[in-house]
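Deliverable D4.2, example record:
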Amino acid sequence: MVREISAGGVVVHSTREGWQVAVIEPQKEPSSAVSRQGGRKKSQKMLLALPKGLMDEGEKPEQTAVREVLEETGLRAVPVAKLGDIKYVYVRAWGDRERVFKIVSFYLLRYASGNIDDISADMRIEVKRAFWIPLEQAAQRLEYKGEKEIVRKAEQYLSVHPEVQQPIDHHTDV
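Output generated by the structure prediction step:
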């Protein structure tokens, strides 16, 4: 079985309304929109996910999370803490249809700068759009069970680490 190692981020931003989290709506494969009955499109609910992607050679998981967040959301973010790993098996929907064992390491990241959904045209192949949602709604609105658990860990972390709300010193950002 093929193995894939990825990393992603739970990007949080403190607002007057409370914590917001950056989510993406991935582009769906056209075939997923067609039903077996007459080829008509089903009504589709919006699929929401956390930004994530494969590690580049020589990259550390935390670096991958920061890079993927920038590429998929347009946001620059500062690592705060590792939240955990999600492990699952999927079957590739393209090419060889091989089974893949995937590990995704997720990090809590704090928003530093950038405009959400300000992403390259090339990235639109993967990401339909990126936007903020209230953190307390994320566990209900995200599609994947493992990602729901990760945002719950982010909520828990933030509840016991109020210092995360402190302003970022942009002179020390990497």
